[in-house]
């Protein structure tokens, strides 16, 4: 099984942004040693408890401290930006780190309405224009690196790397799956944040995939939330921090970051919140190596995924890295 890492650079309670970003760099180095295929960083804006708003900056730092693992923005929120600039940034990364750069495209705002307005004056208009924005971006990322915008002369998103960055489309719905199929792009399905039927969404992608002039084939990645520990009991203890933090963020109480296991255990829950917690657990993989390995393999089988990308959130960074170690040990055979 091909395994990869998705990192939102969460801050633990009492931790600084700098410490969280350094932990992300350490996680990337660990993932490379363990044999993970990719390490992607998410893009969020002014969301309490998340340290990374500029994944492309972090990837340049991480790239300088790793050698083989693929690095990607997962996702760069394209409606906020001009495709030309996105191409310049990722072509620069691909020039510095040949054959290792991915560009994951998303369309969500990644923050509040106020943040959306601060980043863009016409975000919703650009969301509707996403197919055209993707086409333009792909033109700049092709081996020639040139694209003609209407009647304008061709321009190049220099520097032009020997190996172009790999473009992915990220999503949670049939709409994104069909767009990825139409554009002949690899598709990353965010299982951990989607309430839609995974198998149905991915079938829409595979069944409607357009091979295009380059005779491409569908490629599926499924991103899951998982916490693995030596025993099922310990895994549920570690996962509770992440689960309680999710509830706190919904109530506007998550600014301090991921709570400790003790803080999470002592957090008062009403009946409605207890029910919500159980539903959240159903979207996660929580357990020992045997339990987590079995459930990850089941997701891969059901989705026909070529790759599983794991996002683990924990208060203790050692618990976080240990989760990835145990998953790798179980599945890399």
Automatic annotation (TrEMBL):
Entry GO terms, CC: cytosol
Pfam families on file: Bac_luciferase
Chain segments carrying region Disordered: 1-22
Polar residues: bias regions: 1-18
Luciferase-like domain ranges (all copies): 1-302
GO MF, any single term: oxidoreductase activity, acting on paired donors, with incorporation or reduction of molecular oxygen
InterPro entries, sorted: Bact_Lucif_Oxidored (IPR050766), CmoO-like (IPR019949), Luciferase-like_dom (IPR011251), Luciferase-like_sf (IPR036661)
Domain of life (superkingdom): Bacteria
SUPFAM superfamilies for this protein: Bacterial luciferase-like
Family per similarity comment: To bacterial alkanal monooxygenase alpha and beta chains.
PANTHER family: LUCIFERASE-LIKE MONOOXYGENASE
Name of this protein: Luciferase family oxidoreductase, group 1
Species this chain originates from: Salipaludibacillus aurantiacus
